[in-house]
Amino acid sequence: MSNNYEPKIIAFCCRYCAYTAADLAGSMRLEYPSNIRVVQLLCTGRIDVLHVLKAFEQGADAVYVAGCEPGDCHFLEGNYRAVKRIAYAKNLLKEIGLEPERLEFFHIGASEGPRFAEAAKEMTDRALKLGPNPLRKKQGE
Amino acid sequence: MIVGDRKPIEEIKEMLAPYKKILLVGCGTCISVCMTGGEKEVGILASELRMISELEKKDWEISETTIQRQCEREYIEPLKEQFEKADVVMSMACGVGIQYMAEVFPEKIVLPAVNTTFYGTNVKEGEWQERCAGCGDCVLDKTLGICPVARCSKGLYNGPCGGTDNGKCEVNKDLDCAWYLIYNRMKEHGKLDMLDEIIPARSWKTSLHGGPRKRVREDAQK
Ligand code: SF4
Ligand code: SF4
């Protein structure tokens, strides 16, 4: 593992909750790791196993999907579906030989700025502990 | 539709071990609808294989494509160029598609990525159930639309057996007893007397026991 390893983390965030929470975390001046790249989704129900796999294939060290609290999805059940897809994708990661802990789902309400910062930190900690994704070619790629 | 499951990854890896250039071909019909071997599943398996190749230093080159139907020549033939470039082809179709691609391009080896399991239907989101076994001599008129060949664990024509248990089958408590369903259906239609009719022993020649089957329509031939 190189000493200057800076994890590259992709966060797929629902615009109605986690994405707003990310904004809020910013306005609250909460500190969270700067290596999170946020991808906005209209609903986490849009997440596809293939999005997750492609992120890892292209070298993401960790990926997480953040959606509304149970019962709060604007599209009723998008977040429930996403939870199941993430569980399925974890099994695929196991098949491939990648640690399933590199992938997670979080429920983060729109008002939960601090929760957003915590999730970002947790995934960064996991990526640091697990080391770089072995599929990543070189730092900065 | 024809339903199947993707084979375990270990088996797929073992089959592909001797090859470098691999063409993965999905089918856009039944196996796509049962979420096993359509465009999306081809994308997922291709992505998995590319990552495995990188992690295990396998040097695979994976290309992917999905055609409308692998059981019809006209859809397979346009793949000629892609077949030529590949060392091996792996199909995500049912057993029919896998075989027919190998028949259309006999110079290529076509490997199965799918275990074809049954003819069935999508009873609810994410669940498929067997309905017909292609026995070649349908008795659905005598059972009011519930197949005793595919849906009774013992394939009984005159059921239920003594193992029927509150609507469940003794072979597996997760299964509905087909003859319980048939009984209820007859009752709903006021036709319980049908149960008195003995369905005689039949010839299974029309099923696989008479050898592989074929269908000919001379008026449709050249
Ligand atoms: S009786 Fe034979 S043809 Fe009819 S549904 Fe059952 S298996 Fe299929
Ligand atoms: S319990 Fe019902 S479904 Fe099971 S073998 Fe007996 S008759 Fe067939």
Give the gist of this structure.
Chain A is of the alpha/beta class and 141 residues long.
Question: Could you describe the 3D structure shown?
Answer:
The complex is a heterodimer of chains A (141) and B (222). Helix content of chain A is 40%, strand content 16%. Chain A is α/β, with parallel strands linked by helices and 141 residues long. Chain A has a single domain, classed as 3-Layer(aba) Sandwich (Rossmann fold), CATH 3.40.50. In chain A, strands 2-1-3-4 form a 4-stranded parallel sheet, with helices on both faces. The longest helix of chain A has 19 residues. In chain A, 44% of the residues are buried. Chain B has a 4-stranded parallel sheet with strand order 3-2-4-5, with helices on both faces. A 3-stranded antiparallel sheet of chain B has the order 1-6-7. The longest helix of chain B is centred in the N-terminal third of the chain and has 17 residues. Chain B is elongated, with a radius of gyration of 22 Å. Classes of the chains: A alpha/beta (141), B alpha/beta (222). Chains A and B meet through helix 2 and helix 3 of A and helix 3 of B. Bound molecules: iron/sulfur cluster (2 copies). One iron/sulfur cluster binds next to helix 8 of chain B.
